[in-house]
Design a protein that fits this description.
This protein is an alpha/beta fold. It has one domain: 3-Layer(aba) Sandwich (Rossmann fold), CATH 3.40.50.720. The protein contains nine helices and nine strands. Strand 5, helix 5 and strand 6 form a beta-alpha-beta unit. Bound molecules: NADP nicotinamide-adenine-dinucleotide phosphate (NAP). NADP nicotinamide-adenine-dinucleotide phosphate binds next to helix 1, helix 4 and helix 6.
Length: 270
Amino acid sequence: MTTPNRIVITGASSGIGAALALHYAAPGVMLILIARNETRLATIATAARAKGAIVETASIDTRDTATLTAFLTASDSAHPIDLLIANAGVLEGRTADGTLEDFATAARVIEINLLGALATAHAVLAAMRSRNRGHIVLVSSLAAFSPLTDAPAYSASKSGLLSYGLALRAALAGTGVTVSVACPGYVESAMTDTHIGEQPMKLKAPQAATLIARGIAAKQAVIGFPRPLYLGSLLSAIIPEPLRLFFTKSMRFHVAAERPPHCYGQRRPR
Ligand SMILES: NC(=O)c1ccc[n+]([C@@H]2O[C@H](COP(=O)([O-])OP(=O)(O)OC[C@H]3O[C@@H](n4cnc5c(N)ncnc54)[C@H](OP(=O)(O)O)[C@@H]3O)[C@@H](O)[C@H]2O)c1
């Protein structure tokens, strides 16, 4: 694919999604930015417009798949989408007092991180196939390879996304439509602000956006980074489980019950 100029990003109001929006923002580029919080979306949109991009925002909860699909279908018919990045996600898990996630929480995480991302991809997939052109990127995590003891649903959602993305990529081989799965390690964001524990080799969000964009340009199947953690995660998937647990013991964490003030001065909804 040449440089994409019609780009959809979900979860664009914060963290990695916002950094991706600003990474791609340039004259001649149209960005369609989706998240729930309109105020934060507007802040990112203003910054992207200042870099010369045309920006549309839509306040949509990706669990509202009917609204999401209708919006993306209409958007794609008006201006065909080249690149769609399904990035919206949430982290839940063990709290400071040791409470494990309950079923309702687990279901919500799966609904946003896995089903919401699939709904996003499928909203444009048929149109991309009819054009024999387009790139879909699912933002998973290194947790897809090495499940996090303290965040079972998050880990399941991310490995589900990796599995789905790689299967879909293979199924679409030769059609002109590409699928990539991004698997970041730790990246500074509102999400990692709530992750109370070790976060080795943590990157700034713009660094993560640059690495993801590089992987997208190269049409990589899996965009895993930082490299040492990616290789460690791959290795952890093939060693005996007691060894994996031993090596990841120092990575135990809990999720802050209260969301810290957001980088744009507001509290995030759960
Ligand atoms: N940061 C890391 O270390 C890391 C590592 C691996 C993978 N990831 C993945 O990277 C992605 C981005 O995370 P981040 O670290 O940038 O976290 P973040 O700063 O908390 O951003 C999450 C984004 O998702 C949006 N979002 C959450 N639920 C949504 C929903 N139901 N509908 C629509 N938008 C929703 C949020 O916006 P609103 O609240 O405005 O809706 C926000 O824009 C996630 O999928 C995450 O799992 C992050």
